Amino acid sequence: MKIKANGIDIEVEDTGPGLNASGTERPVVVLIMGLAMQLVAWPAPFVQALVDAGYRVVRFDNRDIGLSQHFDATGTSNLLWAGLKVRLGLPVKSAYSLSDMALDTLGVMDALGIPKAHIVGVSMGGMIAQRVALAAPARVASLTSIMSTSGARSLPQARPQVMRALLSRPASMSEQAIGDFYVKLLKVIGSPAFPVPEADVRSRAYLAFKRSYHPQGINRQMMAIAADTNRASELKNIQVPTLVIHGKADALVPFAHGQDTAKRIPRSQFLPIEGMGHDLPPGVVERLLGAMVPHFKAA
Q1: pLDDT tens by residue, 170-191
Q2: pLDDT tens-digit profile of 260-287?
Q3: Pick from 62, 55, 10: which is nearest to 36 by CA?
Q4: What is the DSSP letter of 154?
Q5: Cα 214 from Cα 233, distance rounded (Å)
Q6: CA-to-CA distance for 185 and 162, rounded, in angstroms?
Q7: Residue 243 in 3-state DSSP?
Q8: Sequence spans of domains, the chain
Q9: Beta bridge partners of 28
C-alpha cells in the first residue's frame, strides 16, 4: 500500500496490528533494506518467523527505489568524482541524505500510528537505522545493524573487482540476462558457507525486476551514503539497546566495518557469523533470528 510519509509517497507492506496470545499489543519490527534493494528483498521466511514470534512487521521501499517516490528531477551525480572527494575528506553534495531517509522511516511509523519499534537495517539500511536511533531514540525500542558500517574513513574498502560487480548492470532486461547478472553478483558478494540454488537466485531476481527497475535511484542512494561523513563520530550518542551483526566473509562491506560499528556504540552486542557474506540466504536468516528475537525480548 502507498502512504504519505515525511512528505513523500512510500510503498509499505505491514503484517498489521493485533494481539498476542497474552492479550497484549504485538510489538513492531521495522525493516529497512539496503542499497538498490526493494522491500521484497526481505526473505519471506524471515518475515514470517518474526510474525510467528509475536511481532508486527513493517517493510517499505526506500525513497528512489521500488514503488516509492523517485527523485529523477534532481538529476544524477558522478560517483567516481564523489568517491575521490570522500577519500580526500571533501564534502559531497547529494540530492537527499541518510538523515532524510531516517525521517522517511519515522514518517512511515507516524502514518501507521506506531509510537515505538524495533528498528532493523541491513547494509545501507543499517546506516539509516543508526540515523533513526540518533534522531529519535524515544521511538526506538532496539537497534539491529546488519552487514553495515559506521562510515569511518579509515576502514578498509571493498576490492575494485567487487565494486565493479556491484556497479555493473544486466546486459538486457530479459529474464536470462537479469538472472545471469544476479548469479554473477552473488558469486562475488554472497555467503560462501551458505550457497543459494541458482534457480532460486534467478527467480527472485526476475520477480524484483518485474516489480520495479530504477537504476537512476541507485546512483542517488550511493551519493547519500558518500555524503554521510559524520556518523562515525556520532555513534557514541546512541543509547538504545543495540545488536550489530556482520559476516566474516563479507566482500562488499568488510568485517572490520561491523567490528568498528560495535565498538563505537556504547554497550552494543556484536555477533560475527562465519561464512556469511553480503546477502540473506536461509542459513544466515536462521542465525539472525536466533540472535534478534532474544535481543528484542531483552529490550
Answers
A1: 998 888 999 999 999 999 999 9
A2: 999 999 999 999 999 999 999 999 999 9
A3: 62
A4: T
A5: 33
A6: 9
A7: strand
A8: 2-156+217-298
A9: 56
